[in-house]
Structures are given as C-alpha cells and as structure tokens.
Design brief:
Elements: H1 11-30, H2 34-43, H3 49-59, H4 70-78, H5 83-97, H6 114-117, H7 121-127, H8 130-140, E1 143-144, E2 147-148
Antiparallel strand pairs: 1-2
Length: about 160
C-alpha cells in the first residue's frame, strides 16, 4: 500500500477543506442518480481527523442525523461497520498509542461538542503529526487498480 505523505494543514487550509466538503455534500444531496452520488462521495476526502470531525458536525446540522457531541459521533460511527467506524477506530487507536484513552469520560466527556473535540490537544497533536497523518492518509486516499477504496484495507485495532 502506498504511503501518502502530505504537509500538515494550517487552520486556514482546514477551514477551506471543510467548506469545500460542505459544497460537495450539498451537490451530493441534490443528485438524483446513485452513480452521481457515488462519484461525489468518492471525491470527498478528509485530509485529517480535524477536518472530518468539523465536517461531520456541520454537514448534518438541522437534520435528524445532527451530530453535535462526542457521544453523537461515536454512536454514528459505531452504529454500523462503515467508513466512519474505521476512521474513529483509527483515531482511538492512534490516541491509545500515545497513552490517551479518548473514550474515557476523563479525557473527553460524552457531552463535549464536536467543535470543542476538534480543538482538544490530543486531536490536534494527532492531526499535526506527520507520522500519524501518513497513516491516516494512506487509508483515506487508498485506491486499488485506479478505483477509490477509502479505508477498505483498514483493520480495526480496538
């Protein structure tokens, strides 16, 4: 599997990435055909966990799927064996390697807003780590035979 090495994002780059993803999501919602939705979805990449958390918080606001708290993101991500579960598992596992249990209420309370979660020192430390982001991006940008296969090779560690 190819290692994806890219620079760490600045705050402004993260803002731009979230804004672009939200525009793409609006287009996705308006699409009629599943092939169009799949194409758009395949173009939506999260450069780091901060971008992913911030997007998840904003994208579903005002809907029954709204994700406002750390608990909401955990429930959403773990409710099925999909890509969000793999992203969250990677984040939990990566924090654990640094000696931090982000599922512990002593570290992140279930009620903590996702806006706050995205700014917590452990999350920022992971997103600002070139080594960690090489791991994240290897899965996030994974392609097999030219086809987008985001997180398809990730094996849950926890």
């Amino acid at each position: 599997m190819e290692k994806i090495r890219t620079p760490i994002l600045t705050s402004e780059e993260r803002d731009s990435a979230v804004a672009l993803l939200l525009e793409m999501y609006t287009t996705y919602q308006k699409a009629w055909f599943s092939s169009t939705k799949r194409r758009i979805s395949n173009q939506m990449f999260f450069a780091d966990p901060i971008v992913w958390i911030r997007y998840k918080h904003v994208a579903y606001q005002g809907t029954v799927q709204a994700l406002t708290s750390w608990h909401d993101l955990i429930e959403h991500s773990m409710s099925h064996d999909g890509i969000c579960g793999k992203r969250l598992n990677w984040l939990i596992s990566t924090a654990a390697k640094q000696g931090v249990d982000i599922l512990s209420s002593k570290v992140i309370s279930a009620e903590t807003s996702l806006e706050i979660v995205a700014t917590l020192p452990i999350i920022v430390q992971i997103a600002d780590s070139p080594e960690a982001m090489t791991g994240w991006r290897t899965y996030e940008y994974y392609k097999h035979k030219g086809q987008v296969q985001k997180w398809s090779t990730y094996i849950k560690r926890i």
